[in-house]
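Record type: ASSEMBLY
Status: queued
Input:
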Amino acid sequence: MALGFFSRLKKGLSRSTQKLGGGLTSVFTKRKLDDEALEELEDLLITADLGPSVAGRIIESFRRTRFGTEVSDAEIRSALADEIASVLEPVAIPFAPDPAHRPHVVLMVGVNGTGKTTTIGKMARYFTDQGKKVMLVAGDTFRAAAVEQLQVWGERTGCTVIAGPPNADAAGLAFEALKQAKAQDADLLFVDTAGRLHNKSALMEELAKIIRVMRKFDETAPHSVLLVLDATTGQNAMEQVRVFRELVNVTGLVVTKLDGSARGGIVVALADSFGLPVHAVGVGEQAEDLRPFSAQDFAKGLVGLPEGEAEAAS
Amino acid sequence: MFAQWRVSFWGITQVFEALSGRLSGVFDGLAKRGALSEADVMEAMREVRLAMLDADVALPVVKDFVNKVKERAVGAEVLESISPGQAVAKIVNDALIDALGGAGAVPITLNAVPPVPILMVGLQGSGKTTTSGKIALRLSTRERKKVLLASLDTQRPAAQLQLAQLATQANVASLPIVAGQTPVEIAQRAMDVARREGYDVVILDTAGRLSIDEALMEEVRQVRAVTQPAETLLVVDAMTGQDAVNTAKAFNDAVGVTGVVMTRMDGDARGGAALSMKAITGAPIKLTGSGEKLDALEEFHPERVAGRILGLGDIAGLVEKAADTLDHEEGERLAKKMMAGKFDLDDYASQIRQISKLGSISGIVGMLPGMGKVKEALGDKDLDTTILKTHLAIISSMTKGERKAPAIIKASRKKRIAAGSGTSVQEVNKLLKQFDMMSSMMKRFNKLGMKGLMRQGMSALMPKGMGGGPPGGGRPFR
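Status: finished
Output:
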C-alpha cells in the first residue's frame, strides 16, 4: 500500500480542493488578517464541510494569534494545514488485523450507497496480496444483486465468498461463515452488511443481532467494526457516526469517494468529536484504489498545498 | 394516528424537560419585543444562515437566499406589522418554500412520442438503480405505462443484474443483459427494442460517476445525444454536503438536468442539498425516495422540507415515523389514559420503551418545531438517553401501588426504591418531580389540542421557567 501511496489520493484531493485553495489565494495574498478576512476564511472552511464548530474553532485560534498581521497566502495555508493535521493526526491509524485472531472478523457497516462492498473488495485485494487468507460473507441479503456484486469481487481477488439464499437471515449466515472461516484457518473474514439508515431502529437492531449471534461462536468477534462513510456526506455524518458507534461499537472509519469533488472536511469534524481511527480512504472504483489515511497529506490536500510545503512555509 | 402521535410527542417533550433543554428560538425573541428594527432582522438572518449551513445548504446558495430575504424583511410591512417576529418567520418560510419549488409537485414529463426515454444520472451510491425501479413501478401501476428498464452501468459489478431483479420485483420488463456492450450501445439497443415492442417508457439507469470524471461525463453526454431523453433526472442523496453545488453544476452543464430526485429522505439529514440542487440547476425536485421498498417514492413537499432545513421541524415526518415505529394498540391505550388523566408510572415506563424504539433522540429533536435551538445547545453531546434507562430502573423497583399512586412515595419508600434500583434518593425525587411536571404539561396539551400545538409549537407546553419565554409566548414559525 505504501508504494505510490498518495499519487491518486493527491490527484483527487488537489482537484477537489482547487476551489478552497483558489479561494484562499484571492482572499489572503498580502492581506491584513482582519474581521472580514477571517469571516471569508471561515466561509471557505464551511464550504469544505468542516462543520461550523471546527471551522469556528480554527478561526478563533487565528484571531487570537494572528489578528491584524499581514499574512501571505503560503503562511495562511500552512497554518491551516497544521491546524487541521493536528486534529487528524491522532486518528490516522492504519488498519491492522490482529494475528492472534484466526480469523480476525471485520464487520462492515454504513448507510446505503457509501461503498461497503467495494471497500471489502479493495481490502480483500490488499490482504490477499499480503499473503493472507481472506474470506468474504455476503451479509447484504436484502438489496437486489448485492450478493452477486460481492461474488464478483471474490472472483477478482480470489477469495471465497460465503453466501446464502436471498433474504436469508444475515446473522445466521455470519455465524456459519465464521465457523467455516475458522475451520479453514482464514486470517481475515469480512462480513458485508446491507446498507441501513442509522435512524431505523429495527435495522440497527438487526445489525446488533449479527454481532450477538457471531459471539455465540467466538465471543471476541467482531474484532473490527468499520463504518464506511461517503466523503460527499455533509453534517449528517456526525449523526451517522454517533448512532452506529453507540449501537454497534464502531472501531474505525473508512472514507470513500475522496477522488471526487467532495473535500471530505467532515472527517475533521468527526475526528474532533469522536476521535475514531480513520483507517483508509477510497479513491476510485478499482481494487487498488484504497489508501491508508494520512493526516498530513489529507490536511495539505484540503488547503491546496502540495506535499512537503507546509513545514517549509512555517 | 392522532392519538399515536400525541403519545409519542408527549413522551419526547418530557425527555426534553428532563434534560432541562431551553427554548430560545430566535423568532421567539423577535416576537417578544413587539417592534422590529433592522438590526433585529439582521440578527434573525444570521440565525437563518447558520441553520441553513447546519442543514448542508451550500454556502453560495445560503448567501443568496439570506440577501433576498433580508431585502424583503427589512421594510415597512414587517416593521409595522402587529407581530413582527411572525412576519419575519413567515417571510423566511415562504421564501424557502418558494425557492424549493413553490406550490405543488411537478410530475415526470411523458410528453413525447413513445417510447419516452428517461435518463437517470448521479454520483455513485446516490440511489439511481433503486430509484429507477421505483419510477418504473410508479409509471406502470399509476399511469398504466408499459415500461422497459435498461441498465447502462457497466462499471459496478452486478449493477445490471440488480436492475433486472428490481424489474422482476416491480413486474416490468428489463432489457436482456448482453456482456461487453458499451453504455451507448446498450442505450441504442434499449430504444430499438422499445420501439419494436411498443414500450411507452424506457428508463435508462447509468453508472454512478464523479462530476470531475471527464471520460464518464463524456459518455453520459453521448448517451443523451443518441437517446434524446424527455427527462434527465439527477438522483441526489439527501445527506449530501456542500459538494452538492459541484455535482449539480457539473451534471447540469454536461447533460442538462430536467428534474431532481432526492433519496434517503427517510433519514434524519436535514436535506439542505435539495435547496442547493434547485438553486443551481433550476430544475424542479420531482420526487423523493423514502425507503428501500419499491413503493417508497413520493411527491416532493416543499413545505415539509423547508421546515426541516430551517430546523423548525418536520411534524408530518415525525407523525409518519411515530406511526411506523410505535405499538399502535399500546399507543391508543396510553393516549386514552392520558386523556382521562389516569396516566401513571407504569404508563410512563411503557412510554419510555416506545420512545427508545424511535431511535436516536437528537434525530427526533430535529423533526420537532422549535427544537433546533435545543439541539444546538446540546452541541455534540447527544441527548443523554441513559436517564430514561435510569427511570425505567427506578420504576421497576416500585411496588404496583406506588406506580399507580406515586403520591404515597415518602422518605422510607424512596430509600427502598433507590437501593433497589441502584440509584439515589435524589434521583428518585427527580423522577417524581418530573412526573408531576409531566402531568401538568399533559393537561396543557389536552387543553391545547393538535391545532393549538401546531400553531404555537413545543414551547407552549413548557411550564414557566423551563422555556426561554412566557408560557404560550413561543412562536415558532408556522
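Annotation: Strands of chain B lie at 116-122, 147-151, 173-174, 201-205, 231-237, 259-263, 285-289, 297-299.
Annotation: Chain B touches chain A through 56 residues (CB under 8 Å).
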